Amino acid sequence: MRPLLIAGNWKLFYTKQETQTVLNDFLASYKQTPQLDVLLCPTFVNLDAASSILKQSSVKLGAQDVFHQSSGAYTGEISAEMLKAVGCDYVIIGHSERRQFFGETSEHTQLKVKAAQNSNLIPVLCVGETLEQRENGQMESVIEDQLKKGLQGIDTSKPLVIAYEPVWAIGTGKVATPQQAQDVHCFIRKSLAQLGFSADTIQILYGGSVKPDNVAELIQCADIDGALVGGASLKPESFLAIINTVSKERTHA
Ligand code: PGA
To answer: CB atoms < 10 A from the CB of 29, how many?
Structure first.
């Protein structure tokens, strides 16, 4: 059985002090469960402070983006080595907000996945279709293209996580039904196998309006190995409620 992963994407929220307060509150009630990893991804400037707090726990630290070059004249960018040095184990790559607002393409994500793996960071590669693409019947071709281009030439033996995040479900309150999500996860797993990855061992997370009250039925799906949570990861109560629900479902499974 694949271990589960519940990841919190804090996006552009929280100052350093707020980050410290929320993390301390979260850890005060968090209990580790076997086969269930927890990951938090604060903003770049708060990674160091978060690392100092999280290193006393089993909770993993991740960044929300990375640049593919290791150093040089690239004003404003952050390298994979720098993320590793500050205590990150994971990095989110190709989030739909980066594709939408910052012009990121699958060619960029490919370079980033490679750079992350070269620095022993686990990439969490995000894929997903817009509502228009889904309605036009392009969902599978869009996701296949994001996977094919984003993973071209990537070392298939290194750890990798995929997050399926339908763009129409992010921050909208419109969660995919468990069946919709399961169908796409199954399709992603098949595509990964075709690309030469040991697809059965790769964690595929669902993301998009995951909340304490909808996570139970999502996590029961055979190909859903966890969640990438935005809004509901910001408050310790709701993030803990998600983690506890998932851990209960796993115990019953
Ligand atoms: P959401 O965000 O849970 O707020 O919909 C998910 C994400 O963007 O990773």
So the answer is: 12
| CB atoms closer than 10 angstroms to residue 89 | 16
235 lines ligand 1 (CB under 6 A): no
- Read off the pLDDT of residues 106-154 as tens digits, 9 standing for 90 and up: 999 999 999 999 999 999 999 999 999 999 999 999 999 999 999 999 9
Query: What confidence tens digit (pLDDT) does each residue in 38-52 have?
Result: 999 999 999 999 999
Distance in angstroms (rounded) separating the CA atoms of residues 174 and 48 = 34
* Any ligand 1 atom below 6 A from CB of 8: no
108 is catalytic: no
Catalytic residue among 97, 104, 129, 165: 165
Is 0.90 topped by the overall pTM? Answer: yes
- Mind giving me the DSSP string for 183-249? HHHHHHHHHHHHTT--GGGSEEEEESS--TTTHHHHHTSTT--EEEESGGGSSHHHHHHHHHHHHHH
Closest residue by Cα to atom 3, ligand 1, is 230
Nearest atom, ligand 1, residue 228 CA: 9
- Token pair recorded at residue 27: 């850890």
